[in-house]
Every structure is written in C-alpha cells, then in structure tokens.
Amino acid sequence: MRIVARLAAAAVLLAASAAAFAQTTPPAPPKPPAAPGAQNSNRGGAERGLDRANSVAGEKGQQGRANAAAQQDKAKNVKEKAKAEPKAKAPQTKK
C-alpha cells in the first residue's frame, strides 16, 4: 500500500513540475521573412552542379567556376585513362 501511495505522490509531483515548466517556457518567436535569395531556389530544377552555379552567379566568380570546371575535367580524364590502360602484372618469381 505504501508503494502505491508513493507512486501516486510521485505522479502528482511530476505532473505539477511539467505544468510549472510549461508556464515558464516562453513562446517560440515568429518565423523571419523569407530570405532574399529564396526566389533563386532550385528546388525541383533541372540545372545541377556547375551549370547551376554559372546561371546563378553570373559574372561574379567566373575565375573560380572556370577553375572548378577544369579540376572536374582533369579528374574525369585521369579516371578514364586509368580504365583504358590495362594494369601491368608483376613478374612472377620461381619458388
């Protein structure tokens, strides 16, 4: 019987604490207005990667985008070259 009474007292105390916490918690601030760049969102758009960057950035950052494109082409060429060349086999030694 004592255990039941203690559990009931603990439940009441827990409920009172939760109610007190709910009263002291400030309401959430209102959402800020949409960001200025929100109209430039590409959600569901067809352009991706560097094509998207080129269309959005315009003149600004042209050198950086050209560099990124060159690096992508360089990496692509290295991978294609590695696939095209057969791997050299190590010479076998007699035991």
How would you sum up this structure, described in words?
This protein has 95 residues and is mostly helical. The chain has 3 helices and no strands. The chain has helices at 2-24, 49-57, 62-84. The chain is flat, with a radius of gyration of 32 Å. The mean pLDDT is 78.
Question: Poorly predicted ranges (pLDDT <50, ≥5 residues)?
Answer: none
- The level of helicity is 55-70%
Gyration radius, in Å: 32 Å
Can you tell me the overall shape? flat
Instruction: Output the number of helix runs.
Output: 3
* Beta strands, count: 0
- Arithmetic mean pLDDT: 78
Q: Top keywords for this entry?
A:
95 residues; mainly alpha; flat
Show the helix and strand layout.
Layout: H1 2-24, H2 49-57, H3 62-84
Helix pairs in contact: 2-3
Q: Can you describe this structure in just a few lines?
A:
The protein is an all-alpha fold and 95 residues long.
